[in-house]
């Protein structure tokens, strides 16, 4: 029997993705739906500027070709989380494993506009003597100290989750969300076990499945964004689900990494792609450079 693992389904956009065999009866409706908020930008120039800011450290020079994209103005998606009774918005990020939010002592300008965690206002907070530094693929560096508290995601409560309280928030001011909730199965530097491992341990979900639907700008009025936990909203996609194996888990343990062989734009193949691709809900674009492709 295959090991019972978390599965991730990313529908709409271009790829539907899942692993593991826990999908026998995913068409039932016994799952949770968590609303996602979306940040849009209605100017291609502004969007390009934001992209360059977000990814400038990833690329040594600006490699963005000036495409004018009339419909895809969907910049970021994020949702709610409660830590020690305090509410935050976080990226539900399948590309990383750790949870962090800004701390009340953070004085940097990036922390300025965000909700900040105040340990004093939480009766369940357990401090730790440990500091943390996290760096993300975009070049962002977040640092601060660790603590444990009760974390609630859409009514599911887990105790003693270790999370980061950021004192230096390398997030650029372009981010509306306060922090990041890592949803990969990697061993977290801070949150180990992470929130999804803790939720899995509680056995409250009917299937170990996370699914995302990213509403598109073009369909704004009706196309709500959401994350499903424990099942899939079958009304959110058409056709059949396509299954991909995760690639080399010895080399990339716990990542949602698949093989990518082609991309089509309006049915026309780009071709020549033979690469790994990370299913990363913390990013919103295809990034293709050399042999490496990052999806989402
Ligand atoms: C699991 O399925 C049951 C029905 O079989 C449903 O009542 C329950 O709400 C589901 N749990 C979650 C967390 O979705
Ligand atoms: C946190 O958010 C939840 C859900 O929106 C809300 O019911 C609750 O009142 C909020 N709590 C605080 C302290 O703002
Ligand atoms: C932020 O400013 C306050 C008041 O000036 C200071 O006490 C605190 O140590 C500063 N925090 C950090 C992380 O520098
Ligand atoms: C949470 O951590 C505290 C302090 O480390 C400990 O006393 C408590 O038993 C832990 N609770 C759970 C549910 O693990
Ligand atoms: C997976 O990665 C490990 C470590 O890099 C390597 O030793 C192994 O050969 C790889 N397996 C495959 C099938 O590529
Ligand atoms: C794709 O890459 C893999 C691993 O690098 C290689 O074994 C395979 O032959 C390549 N396929 C094509 C069609 O180039």
From TrEMBL:
* One example GO MF annotation: aspartic-type endopeptidase activity
The family line of this record is: Belongs to the peptidase A1 family.
Keyword vocabulary terms for this entry: Aspartyl protease, Disulfide bond, Hydrolase, Protease, Signal, Zymogen
One GO BP annotation is: proteolysis
Domain Peptidase A1 span(s) in chain numbering: 77-296
Q: Which residues form a coiled coil?
A: none
Q: Which Gene3D superfamilies match?
A: Acid Proteases
Task: Name which cysteines form disulfide bonds.
Answer: 106-111
Question: Which Pfam families does the record match to this protein?
Answer: Asp
Q: Identify the PROSITE patterns for this entry.
A: PEPTIDASE_A1
What top-level branch of life does the organism fall under? Answer: Eukaryota
InterPro entries recorded for this chain?
Aspartic_peptidase_A1 (IPR001461), Pepsin-like_dom (IPR034164), PEPTIDASE_A1 (IPR033121), Peptidase_aspartic_dom_sf (IPR021109)
Signal sequence range? 1-20
- Could you name the active-site residues? 93, 280
This chain's protein is named Acid protease
| CDD domains cross-referenced by the UniProt entry | pepsin_like
């Amino acid at each position: 029997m295959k090991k019972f693992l978390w599965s991730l389904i990313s529908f709409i956009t271009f790829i539907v993705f899942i692993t593991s065999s826990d999908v026998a009866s995913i068409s039932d409706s016994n799952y949770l739906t968590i609303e996602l908020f979306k940040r849009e930008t209605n100017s291609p120039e502004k969007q390009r500027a934001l992209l360059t800011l977000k990814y400038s450290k990833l690329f040594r020079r600006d490699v963005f070709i000036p495409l004018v994209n009339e419909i895809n103005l969907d910049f970021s998606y994020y949702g709610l989380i409660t830590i020690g009774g305090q509410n935050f918005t976080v990226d539900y990020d399948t590309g990383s494993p750790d949870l962090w939010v800004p701390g009340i002592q953070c004085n940097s300008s990036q922390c300025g506009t965000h909700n900040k965690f105040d340990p004093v206002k939480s009766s369940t907070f357990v401090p730790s003597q440990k500091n943390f530094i996290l760096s993300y693929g975009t070049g962002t560096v977040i640092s601060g100290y660790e603590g444990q508290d009760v974390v609630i995601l859409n009514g599911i409560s887990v105790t003693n989750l270790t999370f980061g309280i950021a004192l230096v928030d390398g997030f650029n001011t372009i981010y509306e969300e306060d922090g990041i909730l890592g949803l990969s199965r990697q061993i977290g530097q801070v949150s180990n076990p992470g929130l999804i491992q803790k939720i899995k341990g509680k056995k409250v979900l009917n299937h170990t499945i996370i699914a995302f639907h990213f509403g598109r700008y073009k369909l704004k009025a009706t196309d709500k964004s959401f994350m499903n936990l424990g099942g899939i909203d079958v009304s959110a996609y058409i056709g059949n689900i396509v299954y991909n194996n995760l690639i080399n888990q010895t080399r990339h343990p716990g990542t949602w990494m698949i093989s990518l062989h082609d991309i089509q734009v309006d049915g026309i193949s780009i071709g020549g792609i033979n690469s790994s691709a990370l299913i990363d809900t913390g990013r919103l674009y295809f990034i293709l450079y050399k042999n490496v492709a990052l999806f989402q």
